[in-house]
């Protein structure tokens, strides 16, 4: 029996007993007692924690028995865990922060962490998820896992009244800090996306109605690349001037953007926007530092929108 096989067999013996003497281990492995020390070292390198008991009747005890060991982490991996912990603690839209904190502390307790805090300061930039919304997400998540339909009252942006919805949840998504559910709406007889919100959604309940998921369902067919909605694609060319040129050269604009600085140090941008509304919203946010080149139709709509904005300030 080779060395690796002997180590595995020793692990199996320790895992089956609370305590095994060195003599008994040597006899069962048909090896010299001195080799047991070397096998112990190799198992500890693999991540197992083995407690030694010295003396005439000394032996070994496997601490925290498990099928798989805790694999040792490198210093950079430990630092990455610290950074992730600090990041999530400062983003209140992460629903499972309590469970994550408990898991993180358990991992830390079995490893030696040289640094308890991240060297990077993460500033919170998301809104806290309200308790009522969390509870609706939990109910919807349970429905998704157990293939149970849910019901809730929903008011869309285009309606002033709530409508009762029976819904088969397929996915729960966090997009730009907001939570959404996508699934089959029995009211609409099609797949729909609903936003978790106290202003839009209420009275979420789990129904005792099983549903069968469509095996051809693909969430990417229903959401856009830059945001939630999959909409008309607008290809736009524009120039950004002044300080905004530097600012927006450091971040992505739209989908598959092409950018470069011209001889006047202005940022030329050619990109795709998913939907006319998102294009107008972004371009208006640039104010006078934006010069729209194309498309002409969008340029005319921008002029109309800007004229309305001016009238609001007269």
Structure characterization notes:
The protein is α+β, with helices and mostly antiparallel strands. Helices cover 36% and strands 27% of the residues. The chain is built from 9 helices and 12 strands. Strands 7-6-5-4-8 form a 5-stranded antiparallel β-sheet. A 4-stranded antiparallel β-sheet has the order 10-11-9-12. Strand 2 and strand 3 form a beta hairpin.
Which features would summarize this protein structure in a list?
alpha+beta; 9 helices; 12 strands; elongated
Gross geometry: elongated
Largest sheet features: 5 strands, antiparallel
Into which percentage range does the β-strand content fall? 25-35%
Biggest sheet, strands in spatial order? 7-6-5-4-8
Mean pLDDT: 86
Q: End-to-end distance, in Å? A: 91 Å
Radius of gyration: 30 Å
Number of helices: 9
Show unreliable segments.
none
Output the helix-strand order.
HEHHEEHHHEEEEEEHEEHEH
* Helix content bin: 25-40%
Number of strands: 12
Structural class: alpha+beta
Topology overview:
Layout: H1 3-16, E1 20-21, H2 22-29, H3 33-45, E2 49-53, E3 59-63, H4 75-89, H5 97-110, H6 131-146, E4 148-154, E5 163-175, E6 178-185, E7 190-195, E8 201-210, E9 233-240, H7 243-249, E10 255-261, E11 267-274, H8 276-285, E12 290-294, H9 296-312
Antiparallel strand pairs: 1-3, 2-3, 4-5, 4-8, 5-6, 6-7, 9-11, 9-12, 10-11
């Amino acid at each position: 029996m080779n060395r690796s096989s002997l180590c595995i067999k020793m692990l199996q013996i320790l895992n089956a007993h609370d305590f095994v003497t060195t003599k008994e281990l040597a006899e069962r492995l048909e090896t010299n007692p001195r080799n047991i020390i070397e096998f112990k070292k190799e198992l500890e390198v693999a991540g197992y924690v083995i407690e030694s008991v010295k003396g005439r009747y000394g032996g070994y005890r496997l601490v925290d028995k498990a099928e798989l060991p805790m694999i040792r982490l490198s210093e950079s991996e430990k630092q990455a865990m610290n950074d992730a912990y600090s990041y999530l603690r400062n983003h209140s839209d992460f629903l499972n922060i309590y469970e994550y904190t408990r898991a993180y502390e358990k991992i830390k307790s079995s490893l030696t962490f040289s640094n308890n805090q991240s060297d990077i300061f993460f500033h919170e930039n998301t809104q806290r998820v309200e308790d009522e919304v969390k509870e609706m997400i939990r109910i919807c998540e349970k429905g998704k896992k157990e293939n149970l339909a849910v019901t809730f009252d929903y008011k869309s942006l285009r309606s002033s009244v709530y409508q009762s919805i029976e819904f088969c949840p397929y996915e729960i998504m966090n997009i730009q800090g907001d939570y959404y559910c996508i699934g089959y709406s029995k009211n609409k007889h099609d797949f729909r996306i609903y936003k978790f919100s106290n202003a839009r959604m209420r009275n979420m309940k789990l129904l005792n109605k099983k549903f069968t998921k469509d095996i051809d369902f693909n969430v990417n067919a229903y959401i856009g690349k830059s945001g939630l909605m999959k909409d008309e694609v607008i290809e736009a060319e524009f120039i950004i001037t002044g300080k905004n040129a530097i600012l927006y050269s450091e971040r992505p604009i739209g989908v598959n953007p092409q950018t470069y600085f011209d001889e006047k140090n202005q940022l030329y941008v050619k990109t795709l926007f998913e939907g006319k509304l998102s294009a107008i919203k972004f371009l208006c946010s640039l104010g006078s530092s934006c010069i729209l080149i194309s498309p002409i139709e969008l340029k005319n709509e921008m002029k109309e929108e800007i004229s309305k904005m001016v009238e609001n300030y007269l």
